[in-house]
Amino acid sequence: MAYNRKRAAAQASLLAIIMAMPATAAMAQTEIEEVIVTARKRDEALIDVPFSINALSEAKMRERGATNIEELSRNIAGFTVQNLGPGQSQVAIRGISAGQIVRDQPGVKEQVGVYLDESVISLSLFTPDVDLFDLNRVEVLRGPQGTLYGSGSLSGTVRYITNQPNTAEMQGAAEVTVNSVRHGEVGGELKGMVNIPLTEQAALRIVGYATDFPGFIDAVQPGGSVNEDVNGGSRLGFRASLLFQPTENLTITPRIIYQTIDVDGFNRVDIYNYLGNQYTTTRPKVTLGDLEQFTQLQEKFKDEFRLGDVTVRYDFGGVALTSISTFQDRDVLVVRDATALTGSITGGSIGLPEAVFTLDAPLYDETNVKSFTQELRLASDGDGPFQWVVGGFYSNVDRDYSQILDVAGFEAATGIPTAGARAPKDALYYSTVPYKQKQYAVFGEATWTVNERLDVTAGVRYASYEENRILTFDGIFADTTIGVPGSTEADDFAPRVIVAYKATDDITFNAQASKGFRLGGINDPLNRPLCSAADFATFNALSKPSFDNETVWNYEAGMKAEFAERRGSLTFAAFYSDIENLQATIDAGSCSSRVIVNVPKAKSSGLEAEFAMRLTDDFDLAASASWNSAKLKSSVNDATGAPIQGLRDGNRLPTVPKFQAAFSLNYAHELEGGWTPFANLTWQYVGDRFTQISDQENNPRTVTLFTTGAPTVSTLSFPLELPDYQVVNLRGGARFGNFEAAVFVQNLTDERAMLSIDRERGLRARYGYQTNQPRTVGVTLRQTF
């Protein structure tokens, strides 16, 4: 493709957006909206990016009812998010997933890189739940992006792109939403933005938001009372960025972000609970209904996220220097009701009396992360057949993790001493694990326009990584380990080659080979006091002190086309990913531990398609679909030669459906007098999935119940496949000038989706699932100026 066409299109579109020229609205009536992205760290039209990428604007996300990353993922081919509770979702792209990452695995790294503009915010399991207000777009880059984005972008990258301050004019927006959940609470949102030109060289943009999450899960208590809507909560946050351009060539943009999420419970539905079930004969029977769980104490999720970054760009004329410096500070607290888990040990395994195994047992998981990252790059910034970027990256991460199981009154009730070298009295399990991680990387990528039809891109990244930790385990449930150091180090290359051929002015074919990697880490020791002799022998042999880097070689071919005089667009991609050393989580049986093992070989292959068409001046539609086959290609065996916990050649990779699809139909018609009624219908389909690889074995799985409570049955069978589900959203209203009023219904059919399995102690202590929000009706008022 011709470089001058791409650059001219990008510049024209950017100018149109910034200046808000009237021609933009007129063009949108006849053509599909052209989106400018920065996936390759330079401005270019979405249709010109020579690999599989999706970019949704804030307006499109609002039309389709997407208010968070999970709802957003259902609109995008090949992109899935597994809900593991509030603020704890796990992102996957193209089926590459090793299964659920849990809170007590702080050394596991992410497989998808997540960025807020130029700042990396990825954190395994705890990627921030960023509010989507005043975003320019969200970019989803499919396939390994290790060359430009480094480790953690093993299978792809997600980029939240915010609107930047501008000196052109005063701007503002205010939005208020009120919603009501079926069988739940009333919630709402209040959001605002203001852009203030300070001088001809400076501008300030401030965004603030407050969200009240409505609860819809009821918690049955031991005495039979019910605490209603326990999973309600709130989110508060703001972003403030300053644009300062002292000279024509120099731009400095400092920014601060603060966000806090505070939720009083989890979106978990309990099917079976060791302490509250209908099978007991010696304790009060508990029958749990729809949208109910059994707890003895209030659970909690709290996340405080603070970020400060500075982006500096200097244009030398033909070459631009960009520096991004980012500091983050996060505090995450998860309080779980571990009474069923603890009781299954103290009562079910040890046989202590009911007065002991029913003691409240809150489990406190705390994570504190402080990180500093620095990227410095040089990039060509002019016309010409050769475009390039070279740079370096550094990160320094301190991640402190602790876990305390506090069973107040245990020592007094049993006479068993519980205080240890570090564990306080009644702390049956105590751990602190501070991690220090450093990474250095250099990268470069260049595109050569061979002729007006052919582009060739090649790039490579080299990264070197070191991780150190000091492990402290204590308490009667732990194998006491005080101040034991551990370390691991690794390095890796991530090359990429892309060929793009412009067959016609409207059709481009592309092919690429690329590599991504996910850094390894350090395994925790087994909780030996809880292990049976057989389980200790099995899992101790599998649990190596550290696990290796996971790598992916991805091969793909695709096509991008515009047709019907740019009223329609179609993108298509076929890919095959060869995975080595997949980092799979296994539960260490009776040890109540988890370890990571490397599965030598796995693969993921599939197809992705996205289609958009402006049918008339009033109607447009969009559709996406993806098919994926992700499987193990080797096994991990125990001492007897049998595959362990589902790590069997041919089993599916978890968390990702084989098929996913979405459809959206949008209507807008301008009437005389300036009124524009609009409506949108969105349908989303997600196929069946598994939470963990092992869930495919012995499914449904039969488990032997503990004899505590003299249950009427000795075994129960639990299904472990997550069924497919569909979500339908409706939104309609009217715009008049800068004012918009809309009513909406999310989850119109009140679909009850099983998003992930929630279990304790191999299903014997608890079996349930995370679920989605029931039918929600609301109204939104929006004013811009």
Concise summary:
This protein has 785 residues and is mainly beta.
Task: Explain this structure.
The chain has 785 residues and is mainly β. Helices cover 9% and strands 53% of the residues. It has nine helices and 43 strands. The strands form nine sheets. The protein has a 22-stranded antiparallel beta barrel. Strands 3-8-9-6-7 form a five-stranded mixed sheet. A three-stranded mixed sheet has the order 14-13-18, with no helix packed on it. A hairpin with a 2-residue loop joins strand 19 and strand 20 (318-337). It is globular and about 75 Å long. The protein starts with a helix and ends with a strand. Mean pLDDT is 91; it is low at 1-29.
